[in-house]
Amino acid sequence: MRNTVKISVAVAAASAVALGASACSAPSDTTASTDKNDKNAPLVVAASPTPHGAILDFVKNKLAAKAGLKLVVKPFNDYKIPNKVTDDGQVDANFFQHKPFLDVFNKENGTHIVPVQNVLIEPLGVYSKKIDKLSQLKSGSTVSVPNDPSNEGRALKLLADNGVITLKPGVGSDAKLTDVKDDKGVKITELEAAQTAPRIDDVDAAIINGNFAIGAHLKPSKDALALEKAKDNPYANFLAVKKGNENDPRIKKLAKLLNSPEVKKFIEDKYKDGSVIPAFGPAKS
């Protein structure tokens, strides 16, 4: 058995950073209100464009006005900037992440973001432009995984669940590369999550987050060689705010709307391929 995992680390693409940076410098009418007691101020929410931004746009265009909520959606094709601009007050909330990712981010960056309301689950999938089934992966094959700790653990577990690699006993979705007991000769390449889809041609297979798969026009139910199970999945994506802002009346309005029957129907109608699944309910801090 081979116990050495071959790793190559890719730096996040400048384009993703540029997109986030440009969004941060948007006009003043899209920045968070400095008066948190102003119930009529627009609520500015940072979000991944797909599916989070699309869902927020639906709320903005179809539901918000009736609920007395002015909603501004700021898209970020990045997994770091949304929490930073939420923590420093440039935006009021964000919608793009799950709890394991947030826990690691808060710990590593000294931020104080807390979850408010669960909304959806995006099953992680394995995709390829070079093979038709995972059994075709052999010694020397390359597989890319997201490089953030929580999603990398999910990716490694998905590979292990499908027999591509073997993890040490007792290791689950919190796996690290050092927890790989046998890589079976497969070379695991770490990439910024946003780059796994654009660089799929560089590897034999890529594990891609649901939102980035959708953005790359991949259909999980059709195109994925293996898909993370949605049942009992702990990775629900939620609306999040800086600690202390959970009781902002605007946040409460948005949380209610994001768990409404209308949003449930929108998700089920728009993402019939199973790439996005409603997962409503209060989020655990």
TrEMBL record:
Keyword Signal: yes
Membrane topology type: Lipid-anchor
PROSITE patterns: PROKAR_LIPOPROTEIN
Entry's localization field: Membrane
Signal sequence residues: 1-23
Cited InterPro entries: Lipoprotein_NlpA
UniProt entry tagged with the keyword Secreted: no
Record keywords: Lipoprotein, Membrane, Palmitate, Signal
Pfam families per record: Lipoprotein_9
Domain of life: Bacteria
Similarity comment: family membership: Belongs to the nlpA lipoprotein family.
PANTHER family documented for this protein: D-METHIONINE-BINDING LIPOPROTEIN METQ, METHIONINE-BINDING LIPOPROTEIN METQ
Protein name: Lipoprotein
The species this protein was found in: Streptomyces mooreae
